[in-house]
Amino acid sequence: MGNTKLRIVLLSGPICSGKSALVNLLKGRHGARVIKTRELILKKSLKTKSERKALQIAGQKLDNRDGGAWVGDALQRAIDTYATGQTP
Fold first, then answer.
1. Is the pLDDT assigned to residue 67 strictly greater than 90?
2. pTM of the full predicted structure?
3. Of 54, 44, 50, 52, whose CA–CA distance to 74 is shortest?
4. Would you kindly state where each structural domain of the chain is located, as residue ranges?
């Protein structure tokens, strides 16, 4: 049986810094599952448009409410879902 330890890689950085290229490399080489903050914001703020500025504003509002804890909570739910094999 292979290594079943969960590994989490968090990528953050400015626009055009190579995040997407690294994500694609991790997906290709290791079958990584990708969870994008954009998706988390859209799930949490249902009326938010999928435009960069609208997402930034919605994310800032969420951060202001709980100091950014929403991101950790949403990631934990996604990880738990993946770990149990359920479809989110």
1. yes
2. 0.75
3. 44
4. 35-84
